[in-house]
Amino acid sequence: MEYNDIIGTIGVGLILLAYFCSTFKILPAEGRVFFMLNILGAGLACYASYLINYWPFVILEAVWCLVSMIGLFRRSQHKLT
Fold it and tell me: Could you tell me the pTM of the whole model?
């Protein structure tokens, strides 16, 4: 297994873990941990896709990461009010 495979596998694994935990009500879908798993996972998957020059997934994972960051930001703003 090459470096990009390891990074991509960890990234996708984190995204799937977040989805699994949310689906089975282990983590709330609006919770901080859920967003953090998605941000980290999508960031790693984006980087791995970049390493192999697979641009459709670079874009997909970058957007996934960005949306998760916005979700985390909105959650933190909501908690402050």
Answer: 0.92
